[in-house]
Write a structure and sequence with these properties.
Chain lengths: 259, 337
């Protein structure tokens, strides 16, 4: 059967990562984590408030779940590096999801700056999971820079549009040796299953879960779709064809020598 | 980009079903891009000295009100009061006086505010790019600068004297702030000053231009509505609730990811409903007088505008939760700019 997902030497049974933004309350978040059995949860450092308020988001994330702090808000490599260091100093571990976004309209990641930040942080001992636009050269540069995974977007963040850049993600899956985690734009469990069938190692979902009427239910559905897609991939799906190809040939007997 | 004619058609369409459709579309986009989260902020007035004469404003230079600005000690007192209530996003405001509240004063303010709040914005007189850069370096992440109206003729009529009378200097202020490194820039129009459709169209063009030329900045918009203010006398038109709702919804549809702010100028009922439409940031427990939270006695206060929603921070948090929203107090952690 399936082998665990390995990131930086750590093993995970679940291949479903969950984001924590946009939830209407923290209970929904806690229930979504539980229902999906996710083992990696990403939180923006900017949303963590340890100083004084009662509802600290981290209290809703079980201790056995790996916390992946992200650099949301960073506009360039320098800012991402500062946010990562702040997170580490604050005691949130050394797993960091780099998000460098310098476009508030499309929220597309800046690959060049992401590579720079990855290089600096990986050298400092961070486990770096960079969010990126699926470009082969950038992905190779990220591997070179010491990234633990590559996290290509499926479509624009929050768009729920699914795998709009599917063919380019496939290239990364085929060519890059570290885990590929498809992040952003997955709006339905079927999108997640599709990514896993292609051979992605894991997916990360946030908006589709957080903004659903029943977040815990869809979180579970996503987790199941991820598992189904993974099993389909492992089963070596037969390729789709354009012509009919009957499962049991009807005329084979004509050429059967032993008849 | 939506045309002026289309904006006019929408704003003037009397059909309630069309308004409902607009609201449904706006509400859906808001939930998709922001979830059920509402960010809270509070205004803090530092000074009411003003060298501009703007007919609609309670602080204008010809109005006979007691002028003063907070000392460092008074600032700490006011800031501590707000911080204790959980406020992390602070909007620091002054009248527009280059003499009474110069850059050095604002830098001092920022230095003090940093010790209380994770996110500092300022609504102060427009300045030069290099000055914005200095503010940024002192921990100011956001600048609010409303054009008030984009109608030059009307602008001239209501901005009689002082630096604010210079339309073009103000118009280019957001760009100078962006070049100075400021992360969040809030633009806005004062509804009721001029033709709403025309101002909205011009504001959209301004926002698009800013998005194209300074894509890294996070933009937000505000639609304060003009109200009668003690000691002022000027012509303005009433913008009714239906129009305000349409303005909010249309803006959400045109700019799905953009923050839309709503202040306590609006009453509790309207504010609570507007949360479902497109508003993503609201002020809470606001006072619009200098020293209004702790320094100046209530009967001696001269507010910049009258507040209609008097609920405190705790009440607002409770009401947001009741309406199934996550009240967001912290959404920024300052890094050394």
């Amino acid at each position: 059967m399936d082998t665990p997902l390995e990131i930086a030497g750590k093993m995970f049974t679940s291949r479903f990562l969950l984001g924590t933004g946009k939830f209407k309350n923290k209970t929904d978040l806690a229930q979504s984590i539980e229902a999906s059995k996710t083992e990696i949860v990403t939180v923006a450092l900017r949303r963590i408030d340890l100083e004084r308020h009662d509802e600290n988001i981290l209290e809703y994330i079980p201790r056995n779940v790996t916390l992946l702090v992200n650099t949301s808000g960073a506009r360039n490599a320098k800012e991402a590096v500062r946010i990562a260091r702040l997170a580490k100093e604050a005691g949130y571990g050394n797993w960091i999801k780099i998000e460098v976004i310098n476009d508030s309209k499309y929220l597309l990641p800046d690959n060049q700056e992401t590579v720079k930040a990855t290089e600096i942080l990986a050298a400092e001992g961070f486990v770096v999971l960079p969010y990126m636009y699926p470009d082969l050269y950038a992905a190779r540069a990220l591997v070179q820079a010491g990234a633990a995974t590559v996290m290509p977007l499926g479509s624009l963040i929050g768009s729920n549009r699914g795998l709009k850049v599917k063919e380019f993600i496939q290239i990364l899956i085929d060519e890059i040796d570290i885990p590929i985690v498809v992040d952003a734009g997955l709006g339905a469990p079927s999108h997640a299953a599709e990514a896993m069938e292609m051979g992605a190692d894991a997916v990360l979902v946030n908006t589709a879960v957080a903004t659903a009427g029943n977040p815990a239910l869809i979180a579970q559905a996503f987790a199941m779709a991820v598992e189904a897609g993974r099993l389909a991939y492992l089963s070596k799906l037969p390729p789709p064809k354009n012509n009919a190809d009957a499962s049991s040939p009807l005329t084979g007997f004509l050429y059967d020598q032993s008849r | 980009m939506i045309s002026l004619v289309d904006i006019k058609n929408i704003l003037h369409d009397p059909n309630p079903e069309a308004t409902e459709q607009l609201a449904q579309d706006a509400g859906r986009l808001t939930r998709q891009y922001f979830g059920r989260t509402i960010t809270l902020y509070a205004p803090l007035y530092l000074s009411n000295f003003c060298s501009s004469y703007c007919t609609y404003c309670g602080f204008h230079s010809h109005n006979r009100i007691k002028r003063f600005k907070l000392t460092a000690e008074q600032m700490r007192q006011e800031m501590s009061f707000l911080a204790k209530q959980g406020i992390e996003n602070i909007l620091l405001l002054t009248g527009e006086s280059y003499q009474a509240t110069p850059l050095d004063y604002l830098k001092e303010v920022a230095t003090i505010a940093k010790t209380y709040f994770s996110n500092i914005s300022m609504e102060v007189h427009p300045m030069e790019e290099a000055e914005y850069r200095e503010l940024f370096a002192h921990g100011v992440d956001g600048i609010t600068v409303y054009q008030e109206t984009y109608n030059r003729k009307r602008y001239k009529e209501v901005h009689i004297s002082g630096k604010k009378a210079d339309y073009d200097y103000r118009l280019a202020a957001p760009e100078r702030a962006a070049k100075g490194g400021i992360r969040h820039i809030a633009l806005g129009i004062l509804l009721g000053l001029a033709d709403t459709a025309e101002d909205l169209h011009a504001l959209y063009q301004h926002l698009r231009w800013m998005e194209r030329h300074h894509p890294g900045v996070e933009y937000s918009v505000s639609f304060p509505r003009l109200r009668a203010i003690k000691g002022t006398d000027f012509a303005y038109c009433d913008v009714d609730d239906i129009t305000l709702v349409k303005v909010i919804c249309l803006t959400r549809i045109q700019f799905p990811r953009m923050g839309i702010n709503l202040s306590t100028r609006e009453d509790a009922g309207l504010r609570d409903h507007a949360l479902e439409l497109g508003i993503t940031r609201i002020s809470a427990g606001s006072n619009t007088s200098v020293g209004g939270y702790t320094v100046t006695a209530a009967e001696k206060q001269d507010p910049q505008f009258d507040i209609k929603d008097h609920r405190g921070v705790k009440d607002i948090i409770a009401i947001l939760k009741e309406h199934n929203f996550d009240p967001v107090l912290t959404d920024w952690r300052r890094i050394d700019n």
